[in-house]
Design brief:
- By secondary structure, the protein is of the alpha/beta class.
- Helix content is 38%, strand content 19%.
- It has a five-stranded parallel beta sheet with strand order 3-2-4-5-6, sandwiched between helices.
- α3 packs parallel to α4 and α5 packs parallel to α9.
- The longest helix is centred in the N-terminal third of the chain and has 16 residues.
- It is globular.
């Protein structure tokens, strides 16, 4: 099923309602625990209703918002676990919403937008989004991306438990320590806030310290997807992570770029 075109949305909603009423759709499944609260911020009523229907069938507790102001109240209280956010909204746009919501919550944010310009994608990710899907989109793709963001990363070659989960990233001026098991990054006694995606990215890099990891490998292990992933998303999140790890993000020494190959974490 493809969503994102205005003429399609009402038809999809009507067909889904009719099918469920006639018993042609299975009962709502529980792939995701019901406590997972998903905010859908979309000003197209038809698309928003269609998304709600298919995502509730996945087991999400879906809350709708047609404007950013209403969405911010949901983020503040009672809070959300995931967000789907359109960029082109009346009033406050999606970029501004993400910038205002991100300091309040670690909940992953997936942008769904017809704007496919590279500058828009990068701007949304820099504002604090975790992923970006262009309209029209496949519903299964969106569902897969949401599931991936809810899971902890599968760490290639990594270990779990005890001291294997504690990494001294920088022994100078701190030190900078990442406790993967506790999901805590701290320099000395000061804890450094990480979003869920930053945590996942740092987990994979730290678990493979000294190894060069390609963008495609990071995309696979952090975002858990392959052929439809955009490697630019990795670069943006690495830049965001460097601002929290590096003394000088413009001249990184902890997460370094290996030109033409990818990224490597060098513990100092």
């Amino acid at each position: 099923m493809t969503l994102g075109g205005r003429n399609l949305c009402s038809c999809v909603t009507f067909v889904a309602i009719a099918a469920r009423a006639e018993g042609h759709l299975p009962p709502r499944c529980h792939h995701v625990r019901m406590a997972t609260r998903l905010l859908v911020l979309e000003d197209d009523d038809g698309l928003r209703a269609s998304l709600r229907m298919v995502l509730e069938d996945e087991g999400y507790d879906v809350v709708e918002a047609a404007d950013a102001e209403r969405a911010l109240t949901e983020v503040a209280d009672p809070g959300v676990d995931l967000m789907l956010v359109d960029l082109m909204l009346g009033g406050m746009d999606g970029f501004s919403f993400i910038q205002r919501a991100r300091p309040q919550t670690d909940a992953p944010i997936v942008v769904i937008s017809a704007r496919d310009d590279v500058r828009d994608i990068v701007a949304a990710l820099e504002a604090g989004a975790d992923d970006y899907v262009t309209k029209p989109f496949l519903v299964d793709e969106v569902k897969a991306r949401l599931r991936a963001l809810l899971r902890r990363p599968s760490i290639a070659g990594g270990q779990t438990g005890d001291e294997a989960d504690v990494f001294v990233l920088d022994s100078q001026g701190g030190p900078l320590v990442f406790d993967r098991g506790a999901a805590v990054l701290a320099r000395g006694s000061e804890e450094i806030h990480l979003t869920n995606t930053e945590y996942r990215l740092l987990s994979v890099l730290a678990g493979n310290a000294g190894r060069v990891l390609s963008r495609s490998l990071l995309l696979e292990h952090v975002w858990e997807r392959g052929f439809f992933g955009d490697e630019r998303i990795v670069d943006v999140h690495v830049r965001r992570l460097r601002k929290k790890l590096e003394a000088d993000p413009a001249s990184p020494e902890v997460v370094v770029t290996v030109r033409g190959l990818g990224y490597r974490l060098d513990a100092r």
